[in-house]
Amino acid sequence: MMTKRLAVVLAAGKGTRMKSDLPKVLCTVLGRPMVHFVLDALRASEVDRMMVVVGYRSELVREALHGQEDVEFVEQREQLGTGHAVKMCRDQLLSHRGPVLILAGDSPLTQAESISALFDEFDSTHPACVLGTLHKENPDGLGRIVRNSDGTFQAIVEQKDASDVERAITEVNMSTYIFDAPKLIEALDELKNTNRQQEYYITDCPGILKARGAKVEALPVLKPCEALSVNTAEELALVEAEMRRMGYTCVN
Question: Is 5 a catalytic residue?
Answer without folding.
Answer: no
